[in-house]
From TrEMBL:
Gene3D superfamilies: P-loop containing nucleotide triphosphate hydrolases. InterPro entries: AAA_GajA/Old/RecF-like, P-loop_NTPase. Residues 297-757 form the Endonuclease GajA/Old nuclease/RecF-like AAA domain. This is Endonuclease GajA/Old nuclease/RecF-like AAA domain-containing protein.
Length: 878
C-alpha cells in the first residue's frame, strides 16, 4: 500500500534537522559533499551538476525538497529521487508513495544557486520551524525572505507544508482558489499577519484541504478518497474557478460613436453555456460547456468572435478595454495615470472564483457578486469597490497587429496609457504592440520582441524535466546559439532633437560634446550602481573596448530616459542635466521596463557573465555563443548577486550588441518567413508577459492576478492557411511548456475571419455577429464547408470570378440576351480554367448544348471520353 507523501517528507525533514544539529553551519557544505560522492544520486538528479561550477558549494533544505516536487517530473522519477535521499540519510526506501495533495510549483527559482549567507538564512529558518513549529513564525521571518530569490509568501508556505503538513497550509493556486470559493478567505494572504490569521481560524485539516483542492482543480475523483469535509464543499461540477470572460451588454446612454453598430441592452455572450439575458437569473447549461483545452495543471478556455467587417467585432473588444480602464482608474488600491472615460454605460460579465457583473453607469462602477444554486446564478449582491480586491478580477493581455486598429486619434487619448507597462503588472491590462497615435514602429517592435525572445531563450532550464522548453521555435528547429555583432551605428550621435524654431530641422549632438562633465555623471553612476570607476574611458569620444561602448550607451540611455519618461531634467540645447544626482538616485530604485536597457549595460560592466564569451574588441565579426552556456552563466550571476531584484531581462546582453539567433538545423532566425517570425514574436511576447505575471511576488501592497484573459484580434494576419490551421495547437503547446504555477486559469478570446482557426473551436463558444445560421457546427468542420457557409462568404470563391461565371452562364443561356465580350472560343477557354469540377461540368453541358451544331461530333465524343476518364480516375482514388 502506498505511503502518504507527507509522512515520507516529515521523516526526511527530521533527518535533515538532525543532520543540521550535528554539523551546524557546515550542514549545507557537508550535504553537497555527500551527494557529490554518490553516483546513483547524481545520475537521477541532473539539476545537481550546475552547483559544481559555483564557488559556494552548499545545498539548503529548500533546494532538497524542491528537487522532489518539480511540476514536470514524472511520478516514477520523483519516487527514485525520494528513495535516494531516504537511502543516504535514513537507510530506508519506499516502494510506492501517494502524492495526492502535494504542491508542485515551478522549481527553477526555488532551486537557484544562492550565496552562503542566504543559504544559512534558510537553514536557520528550517531549523527553528522544525523545533518550534508555528510559534516560530513572525514578521521578521517573512521580512528576511524578501531578499531570497524565488521565495515569497506563496513559495514559503509551500515549503512549510512540505516539511510539516499537519501544522502549515500551502498557498498554492489550487488551495487558495478552493478556500476563496468556500468563503474562508477573500484573497491570497500576502504577509505574516494574513497567513497567521488563516492558520488560526481555518477549522479544517490543512492536508485534507490541499487534497480536495487538488482533486477539484484537476477534475479527478477518487471513490476511495473520503475526508470529513462535507460533500457540498467537494462539488466538482461547479464551473466557478474555471475562469471565463462571459460577455458584455451595452446599455442605454452609451455614446453612438462608442456603441457603433451594436444593439443597446443586448447581451453579447462568448460562451453559450451561460444565458445572460436576465441580470437577476443567469442560467448555466453544463451540456453546452465543452471542456477541450485544459491540462492537468491549468484550466484553459477558448472562445471567438466572428463576423463580416463592420459588424462590431473590434467594437466589442474596445468596450472590454474601456471597462478595464474605468475600473482600474476608479479603484483606490493602485496608483494609475489612466484617463477617466466619460459616460461609459455597460455591463461586463465574467466567471472567476464567483460569477461577477461589473456595471458602469456614466462611468460610475457597481460590482455585483452572484450566488450559485444548482445551475442558476442569482441574488446578485453589491460589493463596494473599496472592498473589491483587484486580484479577484483578471489581467488582460491584448494583441492586435492590425494597421488600422486601436488608434488613439480615433478612439481617444485614454488608450495611450494602456500600451505602457511600467507599473509592475498592477493595472490589469497590457496591449501589444506599442502604438503612437495608432502607428506601429516596426523597427522598434522588432527590437523589443527580439529582446523578449532572448529573455525567454535564456531562462534557466533543467534538462530532463521539460520546464520552460521555449528554445523550440518551430516544429523542426530549436535555438541553440546566438552570435553578437556590435551595432556601431548606435554611436554615431550622443542624441538629436528638433529645432524649436524649425521643426523640420534636426540637430545632432555627437560624442565630441561629451566633456569632463559627462565623465562626472558616469562616475556617479559607478558610485550608485557599484561599478569600478577605473573602467570609465577617459576619452569618451574614442570608444575601443566593449566596456567603453557600454559606458557610451549608458550616457545615451540617461539622456533618452529623461526626455522620454517625463523626468524633464535634461536640457537639449545646453546638453546638461539640471540635477543628475537626484535623477540617477531615482533610476537606481526603478526596476521597471524604463530602466531595463540601462541596467543591461550597467550589468554588462559589473559582471563578466557575457564578456567572458566575447573577445575584447570591436566585435566586427559575429561570435557564436551557446545559449545553454550563456543561460547557465546568467543563472549563476543572478544567484550570487547581492541584488535580490536582479532578473533575467536586466542581465541579458545589452541592446548595442545585435543578436543573431542560430537554429540547430544550421539556419538562423532571419532565414524564416515573415509569417514564421510573426508567430514566434507574437507568442513569445505573450509568454514573456505570462511569465512576468506568474512571477509577481505575493507581498503586501502588490496585486497578484490569478486569472489571465488573452485577446487575439485578427491574429491570422501574415499567417499562411497552414499556420492558421496550427495556431491554437501551437499556442496550447507553448502554454503547457511554461507551466504557470501561480495562474489558476486562462481565458482566450480570438477575434478572427479565419475558418481554419474556427474549426478548432466549438460553435457553442463562438459569438456570431450579423445574420447567421445558428446551427453552424465549426468544431472539426471541413474548411470548404465553413467557407461555403453564407455567414463567412456568399460563396466559396472571389467576387470577381463569381461575376465572370454569372456572365458566362447568361451567355450560354439561350433565353438571355448575349452579354458583350463573349464568344464561343472564350467560353470554352474560360470553362477549361475553372477548378471546381461540379461548376465546370455544368457549364460544359450548357456550352455543348448551345454550340452543338458547330462542334464536330468526333471532337465532342473525344471531350466526353476525356471527361469520363477523369471522373473514373477520381472515383478510383477516393
Amino acid at each position: 500500500m502506498a505511503v502518504k507523501w507527507n509522512i515520507v517528507y516529515r521523516e526526511l525533514a527530521e533527518a535533515f534537522a538532525a543532520f543540521r544539529n550535528r554539523h551546524g553551519r557546515e550542514a549545507g557544505a557537508e550535504i553537497y559533499r555527500i551527494l557529490d560522492g554518490d553516483e546513483r544520486f547524481r545520475m537521477s538528479n541532473q539539476w545537481f551538476y550546475k552547483y559544481s561550477n559555483y564557488d559556494d558549494q552548499y545545498i539548503d533544505p529548500v533546494i532538497l525538497f524542491s528537487s522532489l516536487n518539480s511540476s514536470k517530473a514524472k511520478l516514477e522519477n520523483r519516487l527514485i529521487r525520494i528513495n535516494h535521499l531516504c537511502r543516504i540519510f535514513m537507510k530506508k526506501a519506499y516502494s510506492e508513495v501517494d502524492f495526492i495533495g502535494c504542491p508542485t510549483p515551478i522549481t527553477i527559482d526555488l532551486m537557484s544557486v544562492r550565496n552562503k549567507s542566504t543559504q544559512e538564512t534558510l537553514w536557520s529558518i528550517f531549523e527553528n520551524v522544525m523545533k518550534f513549529g508555528q510559534s516560530f513564525l513572525d514578521q521578521d521571518t517573512f521580512d528576511k525572505l524578501k531578499y531570497v530569490r524565488g521565495m515569497d509568501t506563496v513559495s514559503f508556505t509551500i515549503f512549510l507544508f512540505w516539511i510539516d503538513a499537519e501544522h502549515f497550509l500551502p498557498l498554492d493556486k489550487h488551495t487558495v482558489g478552493y478556500l476563496i470559493q468556500l468563503g474562508k478567505m477573500d484573497k491570497i494572504p500576502a504577509g505574516y499577519k494574513d497567513y497567521w490569521a488563516i492558520l488560526n481560524n481555518l477549522e479544517m485539516s490543512f492536508l485534507e484541504v490541499a487534497e480536495v483542492a487538488y482533486e477539484i482543480s484537476s477534475g479527478q475523483t477518487d471513490p476511495e478518497f473520503h475526508t470529513p469535509i462535507k460533500d457540498s464543499e467537494k462539488d466538482m461540477s461547479r464551473p466557478v474557478g474555471n475562469f471565463r470572460l462571459l460577455g458584455v451588454r451595452p446599455m442605454t446612454g452609451l455614446r453612438e460613436e462608442v456603441i457603433k453598430v451594436l444593439e443597446v441592452d443586448k447581451p453579447y455572450t462568448f460562451y453559450n453555456a451561460f444565458d445572460l439575458t436576465d441580470f437577476n437569473n443567469i442560467i448555466y447549461s453544463p451540456e453546452l460547456d465543452v471542456q477541450l483545452y485544459s491540462t492537468r495543471e491549468m484550466k484553459i478556455n477558448i472562445s471567438s468572435i466572428v463576423g463580416k467587417n463592420g459588424r462590431g467585432k473590434s467594437t466589442l473588444t474596445e468596450l472590454i478595454y474601456r471597462a478595464i480602464n474605468v475600473l482600474a482608474e476608479a479603484h483606490g488600491n493602485i496608483y494609475t495615470e489612466l484617463e477617466k472615460i466619460p459616460e461609459l454605460n455597460l455591463e461586463l460579465y465574467y466567471l472567476g472564483d464567483f460569477l461577477y457583473c461589473i456595471r458602469f453607469i456614466n462611468s460610475d462602477v457597481w460590482i455585483f457578486k452572484y450566488e450559485q444554486v444548482d445551475n442558476t446564478f442569482l441574488n446578485p449582491s453589491i460589493v463596494p469597490i473599496e472592498q473589491f480586491d483587484l486580484g479577484q478580477l483578471f489581467y488582460t493581455i491584448a494583441i492586435n497587429y492590425s494597421l488600422y486598429g486601436l488608434n488613439s486619434a480615433n478612439i481617444g487619448r485614454w488608450i495611450k496609457s494602456l500600451f505602457v507597462k511600467n507599473d509592475g503588472y498592477q493595472v490589469p491590462i497590457v496591449m501589444n504592440p506599442y502604438r503612437d497615435r495608432g502607428n506601429i514602429d516596426v523597427n522598434v517592435e522588432q527590437i523589443l520582441t527580439r529582446q523578449r525572445l532572448m529573455v525567454n531563450l535564456l531562462l534557466p532550464f533543467t534538462e530532463g524535466e521539460g520546464q520552460f522548453d521555449l528554445r523550440k521555435l518551430t516544429d523542426k528547429a530549436s535555438a541553440v546559439s546566438v552570435s553578437y555583432k556590435l551595432n556601431q551605428a548606435k554611436f554615431k550621435n550622443l542624441y538629436s532633437y528638433k529645432k524649436k524654431t524649425n521643426l523640420s530641422e534636426t540637430i545632432t549632438v555627437g560624442f565630441d560634446r561629451a566633456s569632463e562633465y559627462y565623465l562626472e555623471i558616469l562616475d556617479y553612476v559607478c558610485e550608485k550602481f557599484d561599478l569600478d570607476n577605473r573602467l570609465i574611458p577617459r576619452d569618451i569620444t574614442r570608444l575601443n573596448t566593449l566596456v567603453d561602448y557600454a559606458f557610451g550607451y549608458i550616457l545615451q540611455k540617461l539622456i533618452n530616459i529623461s526626455r522620454s519618461y517625463g523626468y524633464g531634467c535634461f536640457d537639449i540645447e545646453s546638453g546638461e542635466f539640471s540635477d543628475y544626482t537626484t535623477f540617477i538616485d531615482q533610476l537606481s530604485g526603478n526596476y521597471s521596463h524604463i530602466t531595463n536597457k540601462l541596467r543591461q549595460a550597467i550589468n554588462f560592466i559589473k559582471y563578466d557573465h557575457i564578456r567572458s564569451f566575447l573577445p575584447e574588441n570591436r566585435l566586427s565579426d559575429n561570435v557564436p555563443v551557446s545559449i545553454k552556456e550563456l543561460s547557465s552563466e546568467i543563472e549563476k550571476t543572478i544567484g550570487s548577486a547581492q541584488d535580490s531584484q536582479l532578473d533575467t531581462i536586466q542581465i541579458v546582453p545589452p541592446a548595442f550588441l545585435v543578436p543573431k539567433i542560430i537554429l540547430d538545423n544550421g539556419s538562423d532566425l532571419d532565414d524564416l518567413s515573415s509569417g514564421e517570425k510573426q508567430r514566434i514574436y507574437a507568442i513569445n511576447s505573450l509568454i514573456y508577459h505570462l511569465y512576468n505575471l506568474n512571477s509577481v511576488s505575493v507581498v503586501e501592497d502588490l496585486i497578484t492576478y490569478r486569472y489571465v484573459n488573452i485577446i487575439f484580434d485578427e491574429i491570422e494576419l501574415y499567417f499562411h492557411p497552414e499556420m492558421q490551421q496550427d495556431f491554437i495547437n501551437y499556442l496550447l503547446l507553448y502554454l503547457e511548456r511554461i507551466n504557470l504555477d501561480r495562474i489558476a486559469a486562462i481565458n482566450i478570446l480570438i477575434v478572427t475571419h479565419s475558418p481554419f482557426i474556427l474549426s478548432d473551436i466549438p460553435s457553442t463558444n463562438i459569438l456570431f455577429l450579423g445574420k447567421t445560421d445558428q446551427h453552424i457546427r465549426t468544431f472539426g468542420s471541413n474548411i470548404h464547408d465553413l467557407l461555403a457557409n453564407s455567414f463567412f462568404m456568399e460563396a466559396f470563391m472571389g467576387n470577381y470570378v463569381k461575376k465572370i461565371i454569372g456572365e458566362l452562364a447568361d451567355y450560354l443561356n439561350p433565353k438571355v440576351k448575349d452579354p458583350d465580350g463573349w464568344s464561343e472560343a472564350k467560353s470554352l477557354i474560360t470553362i477549361e480554367q475553372i477548378g471546381e469540377p461540379l461548376i465546370q461540368r455544368r457549364l460544359k453541358e450548357m456550352h455543348f448544348a448551345r454550340f452543338k451544331q458547330n462542334i464536330n461530333r468526333q471532337e465532342q465524343i473525344a471531350k466526353l471520353e476525356e471527361e469520363l476518364f477523369r471522373l473514373r480516375r477520381e472515383t478510383n482514388t477516393q
